[in-house]
Design a protein that fits this description.
The chain is of the alpha+beta class and about 180 residues long. The chain is about 60% helix and about 15% strand. The chain is elongated and about 75 Å long.
Length: about 180
């Protein structure tokens, strides 16, 4: 029976870690004034009749903190990719030199920085909800386990609550770091 409770505890920990991993992944999409290849992760273009992610047909690099360079594997794709970047509503104005597409990242306005901080808070709240849902599911599973003393169940519920507190604290630390990055001029 104790193995079953340990398994429930591990499953809760895994779910909480997945919520944090998802939060960090979402934060890479929030630009904080410096160029990252992840900024173009949502761009898709028409590649011989198929909607294809840009990352599957080009090399995306950052020559400096304010520039993205997109090097398509086939030069004839440059106009198509350039059009897709413009149509993606990311606010970028790409230019090409015949070999690659260059995107200069404009500095963020104060208003945009506040908007990004608000988006970061919303994503963090989603992560907290995921963590709390993992706690709720684990506590429900513990209550269903039979042939275990109530004080042992209470002990496991306390351990799950401690895990929850630890993961929520970690999510808040990740948010504070992202807010600092976003608000720094």
């Amino acid at each position: 029976m104790m193995e079953e409770l340990d398994l429930i505890l591990e499953e809760a920990k895994d779910q909480m870690q997945k919520a944090l991993d998802h939060l960090e992944k979402e934060f890479t999409k929030l630009r904080a004034g410096k160029a990252t290849p992840a900024m173009l992760s949502t761009v898709r273009f028409d590649y011989y009749g198929n909607s294809t992610p840009l990352t599957q047909a080009a090399n995306i690099s950052t020559p400096d903190a304010r520039t993205l360079a997109v090097q398509p594997w086939e030069k004839n794709l440059i106009p198509e990719i350039e059009k897709a970047i413009i149509n993606s509503n990311l606010g970028f104005a790409p230019s090409n030199n015949g070999d690659m597409i260059i995107i200069s990242i404009p500095p963020l306005t104060e208003e945009r920085r506040k908007e990004l901080a608000k988006m970061a808070k919303a994503e963090t709240e989603n992560a907290r909800i995921g963590i709390r849902n993992a706690r709720k599911d684990a506590n429900n599973d513990i209550k269903k386990v039979e042939d275990i003393a109530d004080d042992v169940k209470k002990d496991y519920e306390t351990r799950i609550q401690n895990l929850t507190d630890k993961f929520i604290k970690k999510a808040d630390e990740i948010l504070a770091e992202k807010e600092k990055e976003v608000m720094t001029v």
